[in-house]
Design goal:
This is M14-type cytosolic carboxypeptidase. This protein has nine helices and 17 strands. It is an alpha+beta fold. The longest helix is centred in the last third of the chain and has 17 residues.
Length: about 375
């Protein structure tokens, strides 16, 4: 048998793979930080052999409570991913699976590769509705690309959407793909109505270095990008620095930051109740957004989520708090599960890339509801 990780986002430490029923692995930390939880590896030579795979340091993961009710994903072709029996016991994560082919991949969540990222950019540009601009370079020299969609006129609302500040949260880029595919569909009436009101600025992968390196939460310098928004630097967090500079150039009327949550098995949003500039108008826009989102997607709910910040207690180093406070706009962090959505479970696939993509498509409806409320020429719904 052989275990390998020398591919995009591959990550695991091999302790012993001589016996199929006692394969011992460790979670590998981010390249320049101590966060660990993401894994992605290829197992060869175990076709039709019952395998027992143990991660001996799962109790040291960034979110050990995330293992409760969690099932790992597997694939033979890296296109079709399915859940495999997984349990957490005595500080170890244990996967038990009998591969039906000599080559099988296991991962923490369905990956979204850098090649897929580049293909997404190409397809978006090919629509004829999207312009791609280069804001700068990551610490390892990858492009920080911005997709601009709309008429770019002064009267347009400015909608900013960023995804995957935390690179292991690959569902965020699946979400971005769904959003972009629908927004760039000439025949979609919701998309057409939105582009009459707003220009969209989309960064589908804020952390391409971390994604390629197989990191969970940090970039190549070890920076958690979602703690860099007050004082980003070109040296440590250029991804945030250049995006923030562009935001100040364009302005922001609505902001979404797309993430995945390791622990909570739900889709939910977190707002800006704790920022100094939070207002009754923002609260009303939040209510409108959530009502429209629940109507658009049964996967979204508003009963379970993070505890709301007390007034003045928000962490302005975080993107949603910084942008919402700085621009006085509706700003939300959207979270999807690594596990399954307990409100609408799927035993075979759990939460996956396609469900994230569909959620990205559905987000256009609540965005349209808010834009109609904000745009002076649209009138109230």
């Amino acid at each position: 048998m052989k275990i390998s990780t020398r591919f995009d986002a591959g990550s695991v430490v091999v302790r012993d793979c001589t016996k199929a029923d006692d394969i011992r692995l460790s979670l590998r930390p981010d390249n320049a930080a101590d966060f660990k939880q993401w894994f992605y590896f290829r197992l060869q030579g175990a076709a039709y052999t019952p395998c027992r795979i143990r991660f001996d340091n799962a109790g040291e993961a960034a979110y050990p409570q995330g293992w409760d009710g969690y099932q790992a994903v597997a694939s033979y072709d890296r296109q079709n991913w399915f859940r495999v029996p997984t349990r957490y016991e005595n500080g170890e994560l244990v996967i038990e699976h009998t591969p039906l082919a000599n080559s099988v991949y296991y991962a923490y969540f369905e990956p979204y590769s850098y090649e897929q990222h580049l293909n997404l950019l190409g397809e978006a540009q090919g629509s004829g509705l999207c312009q791609i601009s280069d804001l700068g370079s990551t610490p390892e020299g990858r492009d920080i690309n911005l997709l601009t969609i709309g008429n770019c006129v002064d009267s347009d609302l400015k909608v900013w959407i960023i995804a995957r500040q935390h690179p292991g949260e690959s569902m965020a880029e699946w979400f971005a793909e769904g959003l972009l595919t629908r927004l760039l569909d000439h025949q979609d009436p919701t998309a057409r109505a939105l582009l009459d009101l707003a220009t969209f600025y989309v960064v589908p992968n804020m952390n391409p270095d971390g994604a390629a390196l197989g990191n969970l939460r940090t970039n190549a310098c070890g920076a958690n990008l979602n703690r860099e928004w007050l004082q980003p630097s070109v040296e440590k967090s250029p991804e945030v620095y250049y995006v923030r500079e562009k935001m100040h150039e364009t302005g922001v009327d609505l902001f979404l930051d797309i993430h995945g949550d390791e622990t909570l098995p739900y889709v939910f949003v977190a707002g800006t109740e704790g920022v100094p500039n939070y207002s009754p108008n923002t609260a009303e826009l939040e209510r409108l957004f959530k009502t429209a989102f629940q109507a658009a997607s049964p996967d979204f709910q508003d009963q379970h989520g993070y505890e709301k910040d007390q007034p003045g207690q928000a962490n302005l180093n975080m993107a949603t708090a910084y942008v919402g406070n700085t621009f006085g706009c509706l700003a939300y962090t959207l979270e999807m599960p690594f596990k399954d959505n307990d409100n609408l479970p799927d035993d075979d696939f759990g939460w996956n890339g396609q469900r994230s993509l569909r959620l990205g498509e559905s987000i256009l409806s609540p965005i349209l509801a808010v834009c109609r409320r904000l745009h002076p020429e649209a009138g109230d719904e």
